[in-house]
Design brief:
The chain is of the alpha/beta class. The protein is built from 5 helices and 5 strands; from the N terminus they run αββαβααβαβ. α3 crosses α5.
């Protein structure tokens, strides 16, 4: 379990609950290299994955695998995957939608005016005039698309593999 800066104990507890007979080490432990078959990580530094000759899978605890792949030395035979978590999906979607609303409703303009003690109203762009594009229509992208669509934004998605999504054209 390589999850710094996150606390490792919740992950250890969950793993022990699901697989009580498996040995689990953290990045602070001196795990026997030949015994490690899987790594659960937030990010990996170079030279970590190649240490373990029996490594079969590296799993990201975050929304993507970029911080794992950045190490650049995960052996080709090792599967790289990520946790799919409903709470994480909701939190990332909430953040993305907040950013979209902030931009389309000109919140930075009003914040700047507030700092200058200027109280001036501006025309509001209708959400129907603000197109939203989602790059990556996985679980998180689909959630963002759903929320934006329900709010009245015209939404289109792009995905490497063509897949359909209700109410959203995907290219």
């Amino acid at each position: 379990v390589h999850v710094k800066p996150h606390p490792a104990q919740p992950f250890i507890d969950a793993l022990r609950n699901e697989a009580p007979d498996e040995r689990i080490w953290t990045s602070d432990d001196d795990a026997p290299p030949e015994s490690v078959e899987a790594i659960l990580a937030f990010a990996l530094r170079p030279c970590i994955a190649p240490r373990y000759p029996n490594l079969r899978v590296v799993c990201a605890i975050g929304a993507g695998v970029d911080r794992l792949l950045a190490a650049g030395d995960i052996p080709a035979a090792v599967s790289v995957t990520r946790v799919v978590d409903d709470l994480q999906t909701a939190q990332v979607a909430q953040y993305a939608v907040a950013c979209i609303v902030r931009y389309t409703r000109d919140f930075p303009l009003y914040a700047a005016q507030q700092g200058a003690s200027i109280w001036k109203r501006h025309a509001v762009r209708p959400m129907s005039a603000c197109r939203v594009g989602i790059l990556g229509m996985g679980k998180i992208g689909c959630k963002i698309a759903d929320v934006c669509h329900r709010l009245g934004y015209p939404v289109a998605g792009w995905n490497r593999s063509l897949r359909s999504h209700a109410g959203v054209p995907v290219f």
